[in-house]
Amino acid sequence: MDIPVFTGTHADLLIIVFHKIITNGHQRLQPLFDCLLTIVVNVSPYLKSLSMVAANKLLHLLEAFSSHWFLFSASQNHHLVFFLLEVFNNIIQYQFDGNCKLVYALIRKRVAFHQLANLPTDSASLQRALQRKKRSPGGISRSGSQETVSMEGSHPAISAEPGTLKTSLAATPGIDKLTEKSQVSEDGTMVSVQQSDPPPGHSAGTSDTESNLGRDTEDLFCTEMGQKQLTSTSSTTPWTPTPEWVLSWKAKLPLQTIMRLLQVLVPQVEKICIDKGLTDESEILRFLQHGTLVGLLPVPHPILIRKYQANAGTAMWFRTYMWGVVYLRNVDPRFGTIRTFGCLTFSGYREGAKE
Predict the structure, then answer these.
(1) How far apart are CA 62 and CA 16, in angstroms?
(2) Which intervals of the chain are annotated as region Disordered (predicted)?
(3) Which residues pair with 183 in a beta bridge?
(4) In the sheet that 303-306 helps form, which strands lie side by side, from edge to edge?
(5) Which of 100, 192, 283, 300 is exposed most, by the fewest CB atoms within 10 A?
């Protein structure tokens, strides 16, 4: 891969690579977007110092996934926005200190969050978004962002050769089967959190508050992911978004923590920029590095850990990969012939390898 130069950690590399796979990879990788973002969500509460490159990549994904034509083009696309918002919330709530570069990126790209909060729900806007989708070229990163289409030196993915194996993922298990509510204890270990009623002062109807993030997000995903069809799956009846569908998940967008951060920090950053005539972002980063939001943010929500669950789709991918290894390691490069062994099982493979 053609990876841009950056100074950072393994987490930065993970985000940069996933961003490149999502924005420049083959369209057959789209069923894996949920999986890739789930990995980022799982590690996000522990990311202590994201680089500026990785922070900008995350914000670019949010811009791409929250564009109207992408949000309204498939019934499950909004899940990707929920995952990214959960990443930002985890970092703000659990790792605010040390992540001034991400906070700076959030402030610079604050328009994306305001657009999500004011997402149109009328039929005319939905139809205009779909018409724009028809006019837009393929790929999620082609509109609505200042990010370039591809990195320097990279090449767009080419179509697969005729006759090649076309692997695809089966339907993903419901999110209720993948999610475990956990919280970090004082000694650093993970402790399971039992489902409980909302605390006093929080009504059951306030689904857009952070205190109900876990419950609302899980309920939303349980309902919709259990019924969804993957984008690559053909359907006899084309899916059409409705105002009721948009309203059903728009109210659950976990935006409160991010909006509170922007409400507090944006005026402060603008003031020091005007007072000091700042044009260098390093001064702003130093200001954010020594800032605090203690007592200003909502109560931290429980960390949601989504564990891997074996399913038919991933089993097919692993099986294809392992038998590919078996084949390649048993091809005689001198003659192009295959060394065979009796039973085509993995135990038989080990016996054949010993011979």
Answers:
(1) 14
(2) 129-166, 179-214
(3) 191
(4) 190-192, 179-184, 303-306
(5) 192
